[in-house]
Specification:
By secondary structure, the protein is mainly beta. It has one domain: Outer membrane protein (Lipocalin). It contains 4 helices and 12 strands, in the order αβββαββαββββαβββ. Strands 1-2-3-4-5-6-7-8-9-10-11-12 form a 12-stranded antiparallel β-barrel. The relative contact order is 0.15.
Length: 333
Amino acid sequence: MGNYINMLMFVNKSLFLYCLFLVIISNYCISQEDHYTHQITFSTDNDVFTFDNGSDRYYSFGGGLKYTFTAKRFLGLQHLFKNKDNVFYDVEYRIEGYTPSDVNDFALTERIEGPDEFDRPYAGLSYFTLGASYIFKRSFFKTELLVGVLGPSSQADEVQSWFHRNIIDEPIYDGWKFQLEDQFLLNINSYYTHDFNPNHNWFNTFGTANLKLGNLFNQASAGLGFRIGKFAKISKSSSFNNSILLPKKNFEFFFQFSSSGGINISDATIQGNIFDRGKYSFSDLNNVSWNIKNGLYFSKNRFSCNISYSWSSGVLDTTENHIFGTISGSYRF
């Protein structure tokens, strides 16, 4: 199984490099527009950003590196949606770690950690996404293909252990030896956002709808939100990951709030393989969850950065909520 997963990861990395190669050798990049054609974004999620004593539980950490670009042609994706105003693409690599509650208590005592004491499994994710974003007058639609691996081959446990040992001097969690088994991941994720009042300069409201299908997540959600401050239209704004289309001379500084409700059909980070449940997986799942996100966003010329906080109701236990922080930065060229 390990050799099979390693082969899949090699294929994923090769696909990632091939997509980058297509972009680099292509002479189709749009240079006449009043915006940059390339963008690099780094983002990191962690519940330690909330300064909460109950850190490193549930969604413990995540990190990603994304390359966004505009092109006249790319893999035939430009042919979708004839009535679009614009389109751009992105390739991203991410790694994520999920841990149960009380991980610090387990690590600081001599009693042996065991899966019977966990309220959710340890789970590591490592994956690539290839996405296309289609821009319309008052909305945008993004769809992406996710390919990756869940389990020890993701290296999420090694990343967390290295960070605890070398950066923050925190305990190492032995419970990772009970993490969910290796499996190949394939998901198709879609996101739609509509602008309710695009002509307002300082206050804006919007609606969202998201759908995820595959063997990682099967989920659907819808929500509402608002922005207040100095911002661009949602088709170009940094808070919607559309800042590649911002004019070369730009300025944004605003607060954004959104709330959504979702239906959870399956979650591989909790239930493991949907076709063959492993010995560390959980069968229970709360099928309805709620999410709130708020943050501050700043953009000027080539740079964008933001800090946001996300709150979610318990996917397993409705009485156990979770909050984590995100820090992100982008450079356009």
